[in-house]
Design goal:
This protein has 151 residues and is an all-alpha fold. It contains eight helices and no strands.
């Protein structure tokens, strides 16, 4: 059976509006904590890669490119640990992004948290965690609703 999906953002617009407001707060918190806007986009892209959200991947890849992100960094993002493209701060944020997104794989282990805390301030850890929490929610909205992605 191939039932047409409910677009949950339209079905419950107040909830979606609240998610957008949370996204704005997370973005502002990241900026206030000194998280580079390009890194914020990479965090969103990496979580969306892990979740398989084509809609958010396209959106945030475009946003990152508009903000001046290097296409090579986006291209190698799934293998960020194997490249020299990412700073120590980038690596800490990406590691934390993966741990939070993949919570069932280890519940943000002490090892992953401590690695992030060795590089990021408390404000930056919190800011990255909120960015990841919000993009994971948006990924689930887009995937559940089957937001269309076409050429």
């Amino acid at each position: 059976m191939n039932t047409e999906r409910v677009s949950i953002d339209k079905q419950h617009p107040a909830a979606y509006k609240a998610l957008i407001a949370l996204s704005v707060e997370a973005e502002n918190g990241a900026a206030a904590a000194g998280i580079d806007p390009l890194l914020a986009e990479l965090v969103r892209i990496r979580a969306s890669q892990l979740n398989g959200c084509a809609f958010c991947l396209r959106m945030h890849t475009r946003d990152a490119l508009k903000k001046g992100e290097n296409p090579d960094r986006i291209a190698v993002l799934p293998a960020w640990e194997e490249t020299g493209y990412f700073s120590e701060t980038d690596r800490a944020a990406l590691r934390l992004t993966e741990a939070i997104t993949l919570v069932p794989d280890g519940h943000v282990s002490d090892e992953n948290y401590d690695a992030a805390a060795a590089v990021l301030t408390a404000d930056q850890i919190s800011a990255v965690a909120w960015l990841v929490t919000v993009i994971n929610a948006f990924n689930r909205v887009a995937i559940t609703s089957r937001y269309p992605v076409a050429a």
